[in-house]
Each structure stands twice: as structure tokens, then as C-alpha cells.
Amino acid sequence: MQHIDPPTFDARDVYTTCIANARPNSRKRLESFTDAVADAASAYEAAAQGQALHTVTGLAATPGTRRDRKALEGVYTDRLAKDRAPGRHIYEALKGTTDQEGRRRDNRCPLCGEGLVTTLDHHLPKNTYPLLSVVPVNLIPACRDCNTGKRATVPVNAGDQTLHPYFDDFSHHPWLRARLRRPRGNEQPSMKFFVSPHPDWSDTLTERLQKHLKVFDLDYRYSLLVSSHIASTNHDLTMMPTNSVAPWLEHKAEGWRYRGNPNTMGYALFKALAADKWYVNGGWRGSSPETNLD
Ligand SMILES: [Zn+2]
Fold it and tell me: What is the pLDDT of residue 294?
């Protein structure tokens, strides 16, 4: 979960660019919504800054007809996202996977911190909010798992909002935590990921963080990823005196901060291993039966 700078594109400019080469009849219809799109973008931004995107439900009523709603949704699909679409350069810039010279950039998904960005996710879905179909601050670079897992969720109250990478930044506190589930018999050890909020944070914010984990299925997805990290760690530990194990795991955790942000899978994983007395005092020896250490 990583904060990223909001895009600097103006919503009206983006919309105008996208519809510029539409056929005359269709362009006329789309042009009639230009002001409504710009107004919706302003209302969205104000609400998002106040962590209140559940309050913009009024925007869902426009346009009123199915035909117009489909036309506005189509602006994203056919005029922004498609190859050679008039807005395709904006789509690529919003994905942020290349810099201005076309060089590859770090392209980690801000929603999960693990996947690679392959698409844009509508933070508020375009079929409910057609006016927000190409509003830049509603378009989040995302990996495929985050994009397809989320589907068309609409927040119904303040605590129901997933994190918004452009407007939310809670990286000053490690709220993503994990706990080692000790293996029974020949089981592999596994991790449970959960939210541990700062004591000053409101119940609403805690609910939002929990919602984020749930909607993107992060406990499950991370737990599938950690087994290889644990196996490799157990192998490294064979070289290490017991009193060095916890400090070394703490050190590993620090390496998993992402631009200072401790809310990453790896930071939570290694902090949890370092804090687990059973694991540190030799539990790791029998905890990776699938790894051949001979
Ligand atoms: Zn993701």
C-alpha cells in the first residue's frame, strides 16, 4: 500500500482530448457532458481529500439514459485505453510504467505493493459513475489481481472506502502486521496478515484499512507469496548463531521498506518472524520440510 502523487492532468482537457475525433453525432452528444465531467471531477477531488468518497453518490444519477451512460463508459474503453486511441498517451502516463523518454520505471502496484502495474483501476467504478470514466484522479495504476479482485465495489459509508493511493498516506505508522502460525506436524509455517492501527487513529480509519485488506484479498495473496521467503530465510539461518537471528530478521525487515513505507508484505513478514520467540530460538529448523538443506 503505497501513496503516489496524484496525476496533474486536468479532467476537462483529458475528456476533450479523448472525444476530439469522434464522429459528429456522437461527438455532439459527448460534448454536451463536458461541463458535467469537469464538475464531477471537482466534487470527486474535494470528497477524496476529505476521505468521503462515499458521499458523492449523487454523481451516479447522470447521465440519465442508458445510451448516454454507455457512451461515457465507452470514452474510457475506446478513446483512452485502446491502442492508438486519442487519449492513449494519457493512459500510458497514468499507468506510469515509463518515463517521458519511454524508459521503464519501477512499476509496483500501489494497492498491494507486490504485483506489477498492467492496467488502470477505476477507484469508483465507471458503470456506476459514468461521469468519472476518464477523470484522471479516479484512475489508479494497478496489477491485474487487484483490478479483477476488486470488481465494481462502491463504498456505502466512510469506513467502507478502500485506500486511495493519490489521497491517502498512512506510511508514518506500520499498520500492516503479520503473525506466524506455528506449524503442526509436517505443516509449513504460515502467516496471518492483519491491521494494527496507530492508537490515535479513528475507528473509521481502522475499518478502511481492514476493508482494503479484504477487498484486495491481501491476507490470502501475501500468504501464498511468503512461503518461498520463509524457506530462503530458513536456509540463511543455518549459517547463523542463535543470538544473531532476531537482529538479522529485524535488519531484513528494514530492507523491505518501500520509499520509507513499512506497510509492505516483507516488512510485516520479517518483523513477525523476529518477534516470534519459538521461531527465533530454533523453530525455523523444522519449519520448512519441503526445502532440502543437505
Ligand atoms: Zn496490486
Answer: 43
